[in-house]
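Listing 4. Sequential folding, example run.
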Amino acid sequence: MPEIVWNVENLRILCGLMAEQVEKGNRPNTFLNSVGYAEVEKGFKDRTGIVLTKNQIKNKWDKLKEDFKAWKKLTMGQTGIGWNNGTINMDDEWWNKAKASIPGCGKFKKQPLQNEEELAICFQGLVNVGSDHWNPCGNTPTVAVDDVVRVDDEVAALGATQEEDLDEITPSPSSGKRPARPFHVTGKKPKTANAILIQEACTSMASSASAYAAKKEGKFTNEEVMKAVIECGATYGSDEHYIATSLFVKREQREMFMTLPTNEIKKNWLTRKYNDRLAK
């Protein structure tokens, strides 16, 4: 089978066909099922005259998924990114950091991800970049739970050691010995205060990291919002459900939708979004 040339139009057609099959429920796991592959093959031949095999479609699916993941990691939460006609406009230092952290993202230096809306439908629930996002410009530390627990253990051990030291330098009344130095020194805190300060700092770091993560993910998860989409009457296969899968990959769209007070208003909002973007 000859290698297909994936020009802009062929790629647009393929992404649209794959998204249609996902919308029809023909992606039961991480790939299309046999019905989905057959429909994509037929649709692509009808529109382009080119015959694709299942393996060619699967290979392109894998490649597009990696591109989509790299793009989302590259742009997620990057409020300081400069844009120029949809293309990321950043200096070489920024791009060098990006390429070191995100394999395959260098292709987006000259042009953005193509067919992003269709790819968001295809890979919804398959690509998760929230746990390993990058931030070349920010200074917010990422604190792992295991690290906090380990530091707390070390602080506890430090506190215990210092208590033992104090026992050694503070003899019992029956010994008849004077202490080598007073327990409290004017203007200074006892040693155990250091342990308390360290523990408070660790707690503050953990709280800051948790708050940062919550802010980044937003108030509502995809699962919560898509459940609300169904509840408002936008059933699977409807125009409203289709546009929801495209809109709600963005946090601000999810939060706007969830602020609407009634199911009727929610559905009307989705209908207008669909008509504004896709209806002819």
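-- end of first protein; second protein begins --
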Amino acid sequence: MSGRGKHTMAEGLDLGKCFEIINNLTTEAGRLIARNNETRQDFVCKSGDIDLVTQTDQDVEKLIMDGIRQHYPDHKFIGEEESSSGGGVNKLTDAPTWIIDPVDGTMNFVHAFPHSCISVGLKVNKVTEIGIIYNPMLEQRFTARRGQGAYYNGKRIQTSGQKELGKALVTSEFGTSRDEPKMLAVNENFAKIAKQVHGLRVLGSAALNMAMVALGAADANYEMGIHAWDVCAGDLIVREAGGVVIDPAGGEFDIMSRRVLAAATPELAQELAKVLTQFYPQPRDD
């Protein structure tokens, strides 16, 4: 497992201990999600018919945050449910900050479709040090520590190495927002991409889409409209698996921009970026 070996210290923080704590907390939270995924869930709409929240989202986020606070009372959090209930996203600072999506793929979850996950990243000095994506229904655990590689259920993984768009399996999403300008861009991209790639998949979880790129099961993933908590862990896991994460227009990735493009290789990333119709979601996360 990637948490073994020499413990790295950042700002006097034992990252090996942090990894162990969050690994255990995601296991505990995963049991809660898996148990509740056996039946269709009640939900409420946050901002529209598609943006959903369940009691499980809130329970999982509380379990993880309370568990971290027991060890690190001064750590900061940026979490999906905390942000939606508190009226905005906490500003990312240099302080150790846990970025949490308690159930990524809530639409799948409320339908008992077993493709959703917990996604947690830890940033220290604005650098992601730890990433975990865990789908408890299918027992898929993706983990990474900065500089120590990416792992799937304890085994080292790497991206496919694919460089050609025409041979690439690409993932994306419709997203939770259905406003017209965004949907025009989404549909235009699906129409363009479908003609140029080997295959296109919409699986319903931004974090798991990125994990599939790291695993080598998909070759690229793009989405405009995600949030920091959807992509923080996935960004590190993809890069530690040898892939690249950039802005969908081809520039540097900005975790607060609500835009992401992950790919097996820099060549594939840039080829895909050239094809995409761009959309810039507002407001940004920061």
